[in-house]
Amino acid sequence: MHRTTFSRRKFIKTGSVMLAAPALMRARPALAQDGVFKIGLVAPTTGPLAGFGEAQDWIIAGLKDTLAGITNNGAPVTIEIIAKDSQSNPNRAAEVASELILSDGINLMLTHATPDTTNPVADQCELNEIPCISTNCPWQPYFFGRGGNPEVGFNYTYHFFWGLEDIIANFTAIWDQSGVAKKVGALFPNDADGNAWGDPQLGLPGPLAAAGYELIDPGRYQPMNNDFSSQIAAFKAAGCEIVTGVMIPPDFATFWSQAAQQGFNPKVVTIGKALLFPSSVDALADRGDGLTTEIWWTPDYPFSSSLTGMTARQLGDAYVAESGKPWTATLGFSHAIFEVGLDVVKRATDLSDTASIMEAIKSTNLNTMVGPINWANGPMKNITKTPMVGGQWKRRDGKLELVIVNNKQNPDIPVTGDLTLLG
To answer: What is the mean pLDDT of residues 19-26?
Structure first.
């Protein structure tokens, strides 16, 4: 298979078709003439990444009273939220971002859910000089995938989330706990996430080798793949007892089913993205029990909302009770992105001035549902990080539950279960 190299110099042109047209127009004034401050939101609510936007409508509905009480410089601010579905497609994400900027006249953009959404949306905002806050995407594919230069950064687009260094630290901590052979099969798709995770300089290969792990990487596969036989054969031949990667749920379901059919039984499977959502893991039936993944947020996180005062546990319990669905890791971030955006609205010196809004974003220092957000403390301009731990799905009382099995990197977040091997 062809291997795509991801580097600082390579600009992954996600949604590039949509980037040329808006250059004909300049950004609108920061505050509409009717006094309404418009916030655009782009996230996937349909398609294979729909799990990232599952809680979005519930979050927005729950913030109705809070939105009515937002003030700036002592004066009430009328806020309108305009949400659009990226349909899990980068070209669609760019298209609806352009609509929000040029047709709906937004003042601030919020976006989340993998580089397939965050990158094309952020690119539209950078081009049109619209303030943008994003999350739910490792910072390397967000920053370098957009052609970011660490010495310069971006002017209008700021991001909060963890990085691949945190994935590596948590995954290897889980594997070290397991005591199994240090041979790791890699499943990296040919997309922005997969190219970043598999990049020799910025991704997993170098750090895993330094930690004594041998990575068996058969090369990039195309998303929505229906045959993982060649990867499974390579992993079996190498004696891999660990499998890792970053996959959308349908791809992992296909791989995991074919692994069983072809007699490949690794002892630890640690996959990013695909194993975040209870519905996706529950669909695997008994074969979902014992799978491991990163944890960005759970109701066990020791944080509270700056908007409502709710604790992580209260937010998770309220969502389960009112929606009838299990909580997901994205729930906390779907809430936190509004915490950050509305904090900017409250603090901006002049909501009619884009530069003032940008200054408020840059000076953010806020304790949120997902931890502290402060762009002065990030690994580089435009980036600030949130904490991560390692988790494992376990069946308890007939239901799968994601428990925290590693907190080495963030000991303030409590461990809630012990790691067990598959099979």
So the answer is: 38
Are 74 and 188 within one domain?
A: no
Average pLDDT over residues 17-29: 39
Overall number of domains in the chain: 2
Asked whether residue 6 is domain-assigned, the answer is no
What is the SS3 assignment for 300? coil
pLDDT average, residue stretch 108-120: 96
pLDDT at 273 over 80: yes
Q: Is the CB of residue 72 less than 8 Å from the CB of residue 29? A: no
Indicate whether 254 and 362 sit together in one domain.
no
Sheet with 183-187, edge to edge strand ranges: 214-216, 183-187, 242-247, 268-273, 292-295, 389-396, 399-406
Whether 230 and 304 map to the same domain: the answer is no
Domain assignment present for residue 76? The answer is yes
Are 243 and 235 a contacting pair, CB within 8 Å? Answer: yes
Confidence of residue 34 (pLDDT cuts 50, 70, 90): low
- Model pTM score: 0.87
Asked if 387 and 409 count as a contact pair (C-beta separation under 8 A), the reply is yes
Q: Is residue 81 part of a domain?
A: yes
